[in-house]
Amino acid sequence: MSLALPILDDLPQRPKFAQGPRSLSAVKLLRLSLTDRCNLRCVYCMPDDGVTFYDHADLLSADDIVAVAAAAREAGVTHFKITGGEPTLRKDLVELVRRLAALGPEDLSMTTNGLRLGQRGGQLAHELREAGLDRITVSLDSLDPQTFGKISGDRGFTLEQVWAGINAATQAGFEKLKLNVVVIGGVNDHETPDFAALTLEHPWTVRFIEYMPLGESTLTQSLLGANTFTVDNQQIIQRIEAQHGPLVSVHRDREPGVGPAQVYRLDRPGVVPGRLGFISAMSQPFCETCNRLRLTARGELRACLFDGGEVDLLPTLRSNDDPQPDLIQLMARCVAEKPETHSPRGNRAMSQLGG
Ligand code: SAM
Ligand code: SF4
């Protein structure tokens, strides 16, 4: 796919930022990537000229995933996030949710492109709710059908199908959805005030995510240079305020989850049901408050999205009767191996790391 885009001004020099915590006790969230496969090819996440997926035989089994999650609970992790690739492609998803919920986390949530939630009368959304899933985040990068097609790699899926998924999730009891919008300069940044307007009607948190150049994707391979697509969230805030008036800051603690977003709401008389979140990993890195580990679908544990701190859990998972003590030690090692400061260009695609 070719994108005809204006070249944005060079980003300002990346600010210096404090090093993240090196102790396992700071880790509250484990992101579990259930698969690296996906039915979309979002331009910021995957290359459109083909993706080499892991062999099925290499993917972690449900038992493996639950063993890592149980070890994480023992080590003090309170929140699990199910992710992918696209987690709804995993056949044992509902059963996995049931088993993860049985570990008693404070919060069990999933990030999805939403396409499968609306199928068969919303059956999956209901099954997930019944199995113990607390929250859902749906990724949606455009309110325009053509732009949605372009960004998601023109795979024959429609914006309408995502809305059907969102409706199914709402009807199943996931009313307080989060919507993730990756903002891409020259492609969807003009839509950000329209996304913000959704929070006047719905109890949703719309989160604007600065595009991060990670691994190989259509955007990282672009001749324009990957960094030209990142838009500083301060510019997005200005754009939204120009249309909707000054934003009101909301204390982060009042939001579910333990994510890195700065949270605001639109200012209107009466109750505004929704919130706006800004995740500014590029312009204002938040390593200082990093509280997460991520498990790839092949069993690697990663401390950082961008690079470094990668520990392979598979040999331990497969070689021991009771791997838990060793898994906890490996988790501690992984956190200790975090990079000093994260580089501006990550070494693996988000579809493998799960966000
Ligand atoms: N397939 C699911 C989805 O799209 O929600 C879950 C996996 S996806 C890798 C997790 C999140 O990462 C999504 O919200 C997606 O938009 C975001 N993401 C992927 N690549 C990104 C990038 N290069 N920069 C910023 N966010 C990205
Ligand atoms: Fe698939 Fe999610 Fe990556 Fe899009 S962002 S290609 S939906 S894994």
UniProtKB/TrEMBL annotation:
<dbReference type="Pfam" id="PF04055">
    <property type="entry name" value="Radical_SAM"/>
</dbReference>
<keyword id="KW-0411">Iron-sulfur</keyword>
<keyword id="KW-0004">4Fe-4S</keyword>
<dbReference type="InterPro" id="IPR050105">
    <property type="entry name" value="MoCo_biosynth_MoaA/MoaC"/>
</dbReference>
<dbReference type="InterPro" id="IPR006638">
    <property type="entry name" value="Elp3/MiaA/NifB-like_rSAM"/>
</dbReference>
<keyword id="KW-0949">S-adenosyl-L-methionine</keyword>
<dbReference type="GO" id="GO:0006777">
    <property type="term" value="P:Mo-molybdopterin cofactor biosynthetic process"/>
</dbReference>
<keyword id="KW-0456">Lyase</keyword>
<dbReference type="InterPro" id="IPR013483">
    <property type="entry name" value="MoaA"/>
</dbReference>
<keyword id="KW-0479">Metal-binding</keyword>
<dbReference type="GO" id="GO:0046872">
    <property type="term" value="F:metal ion binding"/>
</dbReference>
<dbReference type="InterPro" id="IPR013785">
    <property type="entry name" value="Aldolase_TIM"/>
</dbReference>
<keyword id="KW-0408">Iron</keyword>
<dbReference type="InterPro" id="IPR058240">
    <property type="entry name" value="rSAM_sf"/>
</dbReference>
<dbReference type="GO" id="GO:0005525">
    <property type="term" value="F:GTP binding"/>
</dbReference>
<keyword id="KW-0547">Nucleotide-binding</keyword>
<dbReference type="InterPro" id="IPR040064">
    <property type="entry name" value="MoaA-like"/>
</dbReference>
<dbReference type="InterPro" id="IPR007197">
    <property type="entry name" value="rSAM"/>
</dbReference>
<dbReference type="Pfam" id="PF06463">
    <property type="entry name" value="Mob_synth_C"/>
</dbReference>
<protein>
    <recommendedName>
        <fullName>GTP 3',8-cyclase</fullName>
        <ecNumber>4.1.99.22</ecNumber>
    </recommendedName>
</protein>
<keyword id="KW-0501">Molybdenum cofactor biosynthesis</keyword>
<keyword id="KW-0342">GTP-binding</keyword>
<dbReference type="InterPro" id="IPR000385">
    <property type="entry name" value="MoaA_NifB_PqqE_Fe-S-bd_CS"/>
</dbReference>
<dbReference type="GO" id="GO:0061798">
    <property type="term" value="F:GTP 3',8'-cyclase activity"/>
</dbReference>
<dbReference type="InterPro" id="IPR010505">
    <property type="entry name" value="MoaA_twitch"/>
</dbReference>
<dbReference type="GO" id="GO:0061799">
    <property type="term" value="F:cyclic pyranopterin monophosphate synthase activity"/>
</dbReference>
<dbReference type="GO" id="GO:0051539">
    <property type="term" value="F:4 iron, 4 sulfur cluster binding"/>
</dbReference>
<feature type="domain" description="Radical SAM core">
    <location>
        <begin position="22"/>
        <end position="247"/>
    </location>
</feature>
